Amino acid sequence: MLRQRLQRAAAIALAALVVFGLILVIDGKDPLRAYHDTLVYVFGNRYGFSELLVRMSPLILTAVAVALPSRLGLINVGGEGQLYMGGWLATAGALGFPDLPAWLLLPLLTMLGFLGGALWALLPALLRVGKIVNETISTLLLNYVAPLIVSYFIFGPWRSEESSSYPQSPAFVPAARLPTLDGTRIHLGLVYSVICVVLYGYVLARTRWGLDMRAIGGNAEASLRLGIPVSAYVIAAMMIAGGIAGIAGMVEVSAIQGRLVAQLSPGYGYIGFLVAWLAGGSATAILLMAFLFAVVSSTGDILQITQGVPSAVINILIAVILFIVLGQRQRPRAAS
Amino acid sequence: MSLSLNMSLLAAVIASSILSGTSLFYATLGELVGERAGIVNLGLEGLMLIGASAGFAVTASSGDAYLGLIAAALAGSAANMIFAYVVVGRRANQLAAGLTLMFFGLGASTLIGRPFVGEVVAGLPHFGFGGFGSYDLLVWLALPNALGFWALLFRTRWGLALRAVGEDPAAAFAAGKSPNLIRYQALAIAGALGAIGGAHLALALTHTWDEGMTAGRGFIAIALVIFAKWNPLWALVGALVFGGAEIAQLELQARGADVSPFLMSMIPYLLTLIVLIFWGFNHRAAAPAALGRNFFGVE
Known about the structure:
The complex is a heterodimer. By secondary structure, chain A is mainly α. Helix content of chain A is 74%, strand content 0%.
């Protein structure tokens, strides 16, 4: 069974690499060199592999932000916006309390990151509970608002005076930076993401809440009649999900960037949606899929560096993989 | 501000809103046709980008904007056929497949448009028509298209079959229609329309190509379908109003209004959401009953 699944996964990966390779050949690029470079970079040394782990962290968090509400039949496509708002509110904390010691400041920033994302998900949750606007469309629209709020602040009130050409917030004080492992960029955010995905798996499989949520996802009407507070669960699930995506934003500003920047995420929220969907909501599969997509996005960066292919082109490979998987089988329900 | 300046501002805003709204209208119309057949396509943003890049590339290399428009329509239709195969042929989840199409469009359009970044084209030629000013072909065809698609959906047998498939594919199947064939046809048309919407943006509004230039217009168009209650005539009204909102904020920015451009840029998205909220309070359930559901029928 496992062996069969692995064989099929390998076949899908191979097919996707061949299709994407053909597209690169048409564009006059060398796909074999790109794949070779990726393998050497990612698995050839400690730094490359650690970068892979760095990249996994936001993908895991945004995937959990999709998987959790999907258990109740909710479709949260707003991870991108929630990530930006988490990064934004965490930045407010970092700039507002620069004198706090790290042991106090970092938990505060984490909570603010959670809060920023959670509040950003509140409106779609309320609109869904009131049956006024479908959460798919409201979360999608808000994705375009959040980066504009971030831009407003870094071009305006928070604009750093040290560099005028590239707008960004002032650099965080050292106490506001998540600690990293020596010699790499691996940071505490990876621990956050693993904690989140483990908690997600545990709560769903082992607790009363998980049982209730699966009941709501199965039949909301019947659950309501059984006395399960469906609306409260919907609001809580959306806010917690938004908060988890918000933590991804906090991790980006605190661990990776060290300040708030306009391009906080290259679409982590959307890739997280696809990771969660491919994983079918399973916690272990989320880890595996996040790893896979971390490799894919590394390929994109390497193509850009070595062959001058714009990094957005890697979206074609992401799409080809997904189209092949989607064409494979019909799942009765995953994110639906 | 003097009266004449006000009048010139108003005239400029109206002229630009018609241009901006036209792009949104074709995209909305495309999504609407697909949704009437029961398929939600979140990949509209990707289709618009493919249309914009393919249309611009062909126009820039051939010098003929109409050729560019045809290329855009064909490219959009072809890309939407991948989506159609996956959701209709293989019955995959429509939302996941739609987002996948969006990713595909993002990547493919970057590749198609890259050689043409920085180029400027004359774009679609303007011509006058009965004293209503001078616009391009797609503007002149917007009202006929709205009426034509309304008639197609509500006054023809094919339209009836398409709507039946959107409401209840099993019943349509029992009545001798082929839900899958009709959904493929609807999505072929939808892909062409979505791409034409994107192409209009590049060929009539900006005259340039830029990576990711649609900036969420695809999602605004999806929301407009709800606003339009799945009716092509309302889609035209909605697209013009939203095109106007977008242009009004750009005009205000250009004239040095003392508000941050980032706050102004939020207006189209927030306005869309606000309108949906008020719409949601007043109108319930005009959506095709089988929207988003796959047809598993004949097994």
